[in-house]
């Protein structure tokens, strides 16, 4: 017998209910992510990560007392925090990398020397 409540179907890992969840709530999660991050591209990544996390955490969804939208919003908020923290760490790490002086391009000098060597061989 198939579980009947949405929450039970989520816990059971019913792919149809996750398809429905995505159709019904992905735009809401996207708008939340855009408001939080201010970045439309990053918000698309957050939507993907949110639904992947929802799948991973499906057995932890509570009973009917919690709305599915609130559950997804909580996951999205955590994903946003994690991605923001990772971006800060990346910027900090890049700031610690020493700046390398520009290395001069030796190609023109090499071509010039080769041309002179070719002329000297002909003479």
UniProtKB/TrEMBL annotation:
Taxonomic lineage: Bacteria, Bacillati, Actinomycetota, Actinomycetes, Kitasatosporales
GO MF annotations, alphabetized: sigma factor activity
Protein name: RNA polymerase sigma-70 region 2 domain-containing protein
Organism: Streptomyces finlayi
Domain RNA polymerase sigma-70 region: 21-89
BP-aspect Gene Ontology terms: DNA-templated transcription initiation
Annotated InterPro entries: RNA_pol_sigma-70-like, RNA_pol_sigma70_r2, RNA_pol_sigma_r2
Keywords per UniProt: Sigma factor, Transcription, Transcription regulation
């Amino acid at each position: 017998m198939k579980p009947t409540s949405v929450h039970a179907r989520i816990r059971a890992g019913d792919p149809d209910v996750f398809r429905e969840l995505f159709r019904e709530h992905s735009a809401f999660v996207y708008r939340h992510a855009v408001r939080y991050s201010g970045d439309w591209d990053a918000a698309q990544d957050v939507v993907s990560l949110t639904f992947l996390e929802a799948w991973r955490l499906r057995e932890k969804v509570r009973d009917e007392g919690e709305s599915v939208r609130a559950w997804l919003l909580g996951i999205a908020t955590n994903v946003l925090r994690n991605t923001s923290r990772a971006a800060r760490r990346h910027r900090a790490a890049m700031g610690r990398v020493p700046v390398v002086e520009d290395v001069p391009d030796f190609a023109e000098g090499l071509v010039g020397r080769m041309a002179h060597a070719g002329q000297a061989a002909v003479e």
